[in-house]
Amino acid sequence: MATAIYPYIAPKELKKEEDDSTARELSWLLDSVQETLASLKSGLEECYALLAPIEPGSTLVTSSPRSESVKGHITRVGTTIVKGSLHLRLRTYSPLQLSISQEHPLILPQLSRLRALLNQSLDCVDITRWTGDRHSAPFITSQLHLLHSILIEALSLLKGPVLLQPTSDTPPQTPSLTDIEASVSAHSPPWNEISYDAQTFTPALPQNLSLHFLPTSSSLILTVRVLEPTSTPPSTFNKLALAIGAQRRLEHDEIDEVFMYKGEEVRVREKVRVESSADPVLLVLGAKLGSLERCVEAGRMGLRAVLGVDDEG
């Protein structure tokens, strides 16, 4: 079944009418983007305020669910852990009780970077609204592209590096996941490159013990590692105990790897990973950021459709 315009319009006049209709639609869409930007700014300000250093913060239970390996609690305020107490009963380490000093809080670099990204996104929204030509489709498109990339990086920081791996059925995003992972890694250093203030823990954290906190969109992940220098050969007693089955090898994903930690090559002898109780602030922050990212992407898709652009280029 075919369709036709009645009464008949000459091809040249039809092309002019189509162009005029597209221009009107684009003008309406650009005006609606301004309203969307105002709403985005409000949402971004709410997200920024969620990471403000305002007491009392979130007190989280940090305990291993089925063992006595780690028992304790921590309090996160803004981008830092301001206090806490941890009782460690590890299989290869003597019992230890650690406290986090309020005078020397533990800074979470991922959340510090996330707050900086939120500040950048607010600047991007203000530039889009108040500078340049608000009726210029290329300008608005480029600004939404920039804003979307900032929000993608912010979400990636909050989700954690494990969730950054692309899947075969996931279309490429802008910027690419490889670029995002590289950027996130630069502001989320691996555990062996993090050195906490010597006065953060009481008593001071031993040389052969590592604590690493990683924020996610719902909680904080604590990983405790017992380290041993590669230069120290295993004792005869441990070799014998392993040979006769009196002692089991503590299997984990890093057991055969060698790391450089505080200027020394070490192996991870024991590794315990604990997820804290749910952090209500991080849960709200993750939901809000996800909603804002989808809103920006919807605006970009609308502009691409009107402009007849099928890809990210």
Automatic annotation (TrEMBL):
Alphabetical list of InterPro entries matching this protein: RAVE2/Rogdi
Domain of life the protein comes from: Eukaryota
GO cellular component: RAVE complex
Listed PANTHER family: LEUCINE ZIPPER CONTAINING TRANSCRIPTION FACTOR LZF1, PROTEIN ROGDI HOMOLOG
Protein name stated in the entry: RAVE subunit 2/Rogdi
UniProt source species: Venustampulla echinocandica
Taxonomic placement: Eukaryota, Fungi, Dikarya, Ascomycota, Pezizomycotina
